[in-house]
């Protein structure tokens, strides 16, 4: 009898075991092939993968070098403080070669080979614009630090954001009130004859007219030009302000020849620091810039009223009070732009934590969490200053700095308000399908 | 049909069949990469027709690629034309531009031809940048949503779908490969090789070498333009960087690596160069130096490229 009962119990146990194994195997199979039905619980140690698309080579390499250092510093800080949702960040860097074709390939690689959670980067507009269709079609969030107007123009797609840096339109229009009020209203513009220069031409011409000023002459310099002497005689004699945005390797020649042309009888001169990012202001050819003014996204030189946040940011990235590397004073940073890489990573963290991001299946929730952001207060995570984020155009608006070259350093003379750079939205990404 | 011809047909058809089957096994990233490789290989095949078979080294082939790219891209972007129609516009732009360039540039030879094509290509690049209002110059344009869908033979196709892109790229590659194969094996192909080997003698034999070179330049430019048009429509972006000198040098490198004067060489060279850069860039930012060293070694030990060496040593029948 007891033997029979024992046999029955044994058979029941075996059936139960087989059932349990069957259910377990079934659940395993279903969860493997239907991750949305059984969301995978990630171990705390499994990293959040962020694909970083940087300019390691090509014309943007000096920017890329500092973008990478800044991103590494922010990742270290975030990881030291517990990561995102308790998981560390793994930054996977790929070189886009400052080339839109390679940029698009890198985005594909992030999405399909590295299987990153989000992609992040880069500066040059053509790389961002060339990469964004692939990000949108692969449904990979692509959060850029480019300062181009392309994101805010509404012409990209719902997966592309620019929350950590302002766009060129905002930067340019916020300069006009100060330029008109302090330097003069009769402006001559010298700009490179391609899209970046044309943005300045169009946005500033409109903005200065709204301040009661006028553009006397527009001087477009072809991108292949190596000498600028023949362009300066075209500057009208009654010019009060010369506005320049020359970029690229010719900038030293440009400044030198501008000095040779005008000498001591020059108009007020205002430029964008983009031309001289990663360039030491003590370079001999730049002497003529003494007493001229520059837009800066973030002041390169530590100011007398430096915030504790800026102090912390410099120390974390390894930048001294002159905006150069702590280990090599000749290695000048791209300080006016690179803060965007720092701030963007904290914004990604904020959005991921807000939506309880777990895996790639949560990307739509992440997009919606990004679109729920509205303001970023000046803080250690946002050392450049407070910002207002417009979810319709996926673009932040913030303060700009105007600095004067004095004793081969830049001293801030004006910090614009956020409102100075705001404009009506030109699109609405939130209406696009996810 | 001779046995050599049969072998050749079998090899080329086998490569195309292999590429068709490969799409079912490739991991996602390589599926996307092979799509790009096939399109760029078409560009290199166009270049090879002029350089490898005729001996004319153009340093401005990016202008033909860009002509196709902008012809297709601008008509889709500004005029809202359908994908097939825009693609045809891209090809038409390639025909017109290569004919115009050929009529002028073919009055020169050797180094002068290289310089003239380089100059015209620079003009094409600056033209794109100059008309920023329409092209957005260096920034470029993203193709609108309307240019991502189209109907072909009653089928609704989406260019956002990787399988569609892969098979369209394969179709273009197959058409171009078959056309080049037929062309180089026929009388016309033999006249091209005759010009490459000794133009003066070919002329003396009664051939109008200028006309032959003009024809091959138009075919070469048109093939390159078809690649550019395909690239614009499939990857939804056009930009002036595709008209820079770098994109004139790329097909030269692909062709040299794979084997100039072979039908499959440009495809092989494109694939090898793509993965050489893709893999080495993960380890070093000096990946172009690595690519350069590989090319130097190749030129030293395999001056006719990989398939050129294979043809010399083992398979003389390789076209």
Attribute tags:
heterodimer; A: 434 residues; alpha/beta; Rossmann fold; seven-stranded mixed beta sheet; five-stranded parallel beta sheet; 10 helices; B: 319 residues; two-stranded antiparallel sheet; 73% helix
Could you give a quick summary of the protein structure above?
The complex is a heterodimer of chains A (434) and B (319). By secondary structure, chain A is α/β, with parallel strands linked by helices.
CATH topology of the largest domain in chain A: Rossmann fold
Number of domains of chain B: 1
The Cα radius of gyration of chain A reads 26 Å
Q: What portion of residues of chain A belong to β-strands?
A: 15-25%
Distance between the termini of chain A: 67 Å
Helix content of chain A: 25-40%
Give the CA-CA distance, first to last residue of chain B. Answer: 15 Å
Average pLDDT for all residues of chain A: 89
> Main β-sheet of chain B: number of strands, strand sense, barrel status?
2 strands, antiparallel
Structural class of chain B: mainly alpha
Biggest β-sheet of chain A, characterized? 7 strands, mixed
Strand order of the largest sheet of chain B: 1-4
Low-confidence stretches of chain B: none
Count of discrete domains of chain A? 2
Overall pLDDT score of chain B: 93
The amount of helix of chain B comes to over 70%
Poorly predicted sequence stretches spanning 5 or more consecutive residues of chain A: 1-7, 16-41
Structure overview:
The complex is a heterodimer of chains A (434) and B (319). Chain A has helices at 2-33, 61-80, 100-114, 125-137, 168-183, 195-210, 251-262, 308-317, 335-354, 363-371; strands at residues 48-54, 89-95, 118-121, 142-144, 160-161, 186-192, 214-221, 241-244, 268-272, 293-296, 375-376, 387-390, 395-398, 401-406, 409-415. With 434 residues, chain A is an alpha/beta fold. In chain A, helix 5 (168-183) packs across helix 6 (195-210). Chain A is globular. By secondary structure, chain B is mostly helical. Chain B has one domain (13-243). In chain B, a hairpin with a 2-residue loop joins strand 2 (149-152) and strand 3 (155-158). In chain B, helix 1 (3-22) runs antiparallel to helix 7 (162-185), helix 3 (62-78) packs antiparallel against helix 4 and helix 7 packs antiparallel against helix 9. The longest helix of chain B has 27 residues, at 209-235. The model of chain B has no long low-confidence stretch (mean pLDDT 93). The interface between A and B is medium-sized, with 34 and 35 residues.
């Amino acid at each position: 009898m007891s033997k029979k009962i024992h046999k029955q119990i044994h058979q029941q146990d075996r059936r139960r075991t087989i059932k349990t194994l069957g259910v377990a195997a079934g659940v395993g199979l279903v969860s493997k092939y239907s991750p949305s039905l059984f969301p995978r619980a990630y171990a705390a140690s499994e990293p959040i993968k962020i694909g970083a698309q940087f300019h390691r080579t090509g014309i943007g390499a000096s920017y890329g070098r500092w973008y990478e250092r800044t991103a590494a510093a922010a990742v270290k800080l975030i990881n030291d403080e517990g990561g995102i949702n308790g998981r560390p960040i793994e930054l996977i860097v790929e070189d886009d070669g400052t080339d839109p074709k390679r940029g698009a390939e890198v985005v594909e690689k992030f999405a399909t080979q590295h299987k990153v959670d989000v992609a992040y980067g880069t500066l040059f507009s053509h790389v961002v614009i060339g990469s964004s269709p692939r990000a949108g079609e692969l449904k990979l969030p692509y959060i850029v630090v480019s300062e181009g107007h392309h994101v805010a123009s509404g012409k990209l797609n719902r997966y592309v954001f620019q929350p950590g840096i302002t766009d060129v339109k905002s930067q340019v229009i916020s300069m006009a009130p100060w330029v008109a009020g302090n330097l003069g209203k009769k402006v001559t513009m010298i700009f490179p004859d391609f899209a970046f220069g044309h943005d300045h031409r169009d946005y500033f011409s409109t903005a200065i007219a709204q301040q009661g000023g006028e553009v006397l002459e527009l001087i477009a310099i072809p991108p292949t030009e190596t000498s600028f002497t023949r362009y300066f005689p075209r500057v009208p004699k009654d010019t009060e302000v010369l506005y320049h945005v020359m970029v690229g390797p010719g900038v030293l020649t440009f400044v030198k020849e501008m000095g040779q042309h005008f000498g001591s009888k020059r108009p007020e001169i205002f430029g964008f620091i983009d031309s001289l990012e990663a360039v030491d202001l003590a370079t001999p050819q730049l002497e003529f810039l003494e007493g001229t003014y520059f837009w800066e996204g973030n002041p390169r030189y530590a100011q007398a009223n430096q915030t504790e946040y800026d102090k912390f940011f410099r120390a974390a990235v390894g930048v001294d009070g002159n905006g150069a590397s702590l280990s090599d004073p000749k290695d000048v940073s791209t300080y006016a732009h690179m803060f965007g890489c720092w701030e963007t990573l904290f914004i990604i963290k904020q959005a991921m934590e807000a939506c309880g991001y777990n895996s790639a299946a949560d990307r739509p929730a992440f997009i919606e969490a990004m679109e729920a952001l509205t303001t970023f207060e000046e803080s250690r995570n946002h050392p450049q200053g407070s910002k207002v984020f417009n979810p319709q155009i996926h673009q932040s608006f913030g303060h700009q700095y105007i600095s004067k070259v004095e004793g081969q350093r830049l001293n801030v003379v004006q910090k614009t308000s956020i409102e100075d750079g705001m404009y009506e939205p030109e699109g609405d990404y939130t209406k696009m399908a996810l | 049909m001779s046995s050599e011809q049969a072998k050749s047909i079998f090899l080329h058809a086998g490569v195309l069949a292999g590429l068709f089957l490969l799409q079912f096994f490739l991991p996602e990233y390589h599926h996307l990469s092979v799509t790009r490789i096939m399109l760029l290989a078409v560009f290199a095949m166009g270049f090879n027709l002029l350089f490898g078979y005729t001996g004319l080294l153009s340093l401005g082939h990016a202008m033909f690629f860009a002509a196709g790219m902008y012809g297709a891209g601008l008509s889709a972007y500004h005029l809202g034309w359908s994908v097939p129609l825009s693609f045809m516009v891209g090809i038409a732009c390639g025909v017109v531009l290569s004919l115009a360039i050929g009529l002028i540039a073919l009055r020169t030879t050797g180094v002068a031809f290289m310089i003239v094509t380089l100059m015209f290509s620079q003009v094409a690049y600056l033209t794109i940048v100059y008309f920023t209002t329409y092209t957005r110059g260096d920034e470029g344009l993203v193709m609108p949503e309307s240019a991502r869908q189209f109907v072909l033979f009653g089928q609704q196709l989406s260019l956002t779908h990787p399988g569609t892109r892969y098979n369209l790229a394969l179709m273009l590659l197959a058409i171009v490969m078959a056309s080049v194969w037929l062309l180089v094996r026929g009388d016309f192909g033999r006249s091209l090789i005759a010009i490459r080997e000794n133009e003066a003698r070919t002329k003396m034999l009664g051939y109008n070498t200028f006309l032959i070179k003009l024809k091959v330049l138009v075919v070469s430019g048109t093939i390159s333009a078809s690649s550019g048009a395909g690239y614009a429509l499939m990857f939804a972006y056009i930009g002036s960087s595709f008209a820079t000198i770098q994109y004139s040098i790329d097909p030269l490198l692909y062709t040299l690596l794979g084997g100039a004067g072979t039908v499959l060489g440009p495809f092989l060279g494109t694939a090898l160069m793509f993965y050489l850069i893709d893999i080495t860039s993960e380890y070093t930012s000096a990946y172009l130096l690595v690519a350069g060293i590989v090319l130097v070694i190749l030129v030293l030990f395999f001056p006719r490229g990989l398939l050129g060496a294979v043809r010399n040593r083992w398979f003389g029948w390789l076209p």
